Amino acid sequence: MSPFEWLDGRFQLTDQPYYVLFLIGVAVLLLASELVVFVLAKLESHQFGVVHLGTLFTPLCTGFPNLMLGIFGQSRLSGDLVIHLNIGNNIANTTLVTGTIILLAGPLTVRVASGKSKKAVQARRDFNIALAVLWLGAALLVYLCHDGLVSRWDAAALVGCYAAYQALMLFRRGKPTKSKRLPKSLGAALLGALLGCALLISFSVDAVAAGMEGMGTLVPGASLGMLLGLLTVLPESFLLLRLTRKQGSLGLTGLVGDCLVSIPLVIGVSALIVPIPTAVLAGPWDVAARGYWMLGATMLGFSILAMQPGQISRKVGFGFCCLYALVWVWL
To answer: Residue ranges of the Sodium/calcium exchanger membrane region domain (predicted)?
Structure first.
């Protein structure tokens, strides 16, 4: 049971007008974003690098709705819908979210940690590793799906890929100096705060979804379905826009981290619980491979963007939004 469902049972939240639910969800999401920014600032002062923060701690909150859907949503996600929802999440992250933020807050720098300092060089290497693991996870998913079933052994490989990456990041963090060691009590408090933010984000996404469902008479069915499919990228959109306006640059590590939660973690955890049957990939030009090709194309554009050293104009952001629109045209 989600936080929203629990509160709805006590206070009948769904009896409220759709616009009230929508506004409540947005307000709670903004509050959760502010709390996450505060926690990340505290962790950064204790020798956690920007890449580690973006690929481990931020997705604890932004990826929480996806993870809960993968664990508890099996009865609602028949067939291989959980796979396609997470592919769609990553496509939206690498195009629509990226493009919208550049369009709204640009021109921006997107390259991780500019400069030649030791800290900046390590941050760029860490980001390159994260990007490589993102491609590895996507390639592993395609390979495991080719026979028409993501078994529990396949799921273990997907989860193992994610776990190995996080272990590598902890190793690369190194041993912090005495002044930057994170006290256990503070660490527990910050972790509790992040989990609290995750619950707030889960509540806000459910509230926005309930509000949007109330718009069913105002929005055509197909358009409403497309809007509901974008709910999984709401948390990182709000959080990244807040961080971008504060720092003056778009940190892509949070997006990479959220994509790593979707593929391979969420799909892996979901398949560990119940193996996922999917369409057999008869060949590279098979209709069943279309979603994977679209994912690869958007990831390629995102990877090229991440390597750009200078400022990125709003036109590039508009181009990424158009790329997302083209994905829907091709579907």
So the answer is: 19-170, 191-330
Contact between 274 and 81 under an 8 Å Cβ cutoff? The reply is no
Question: Residue 74 phi/psi, 5° resolution?
Answer: -60, -35
CB atoms within 10 A of CB 17: 10
Q: What is the pTM of this model?
A: 0.78
End-to-end CA, the chain: 33
Tell me which amino acid residue 250 is: L
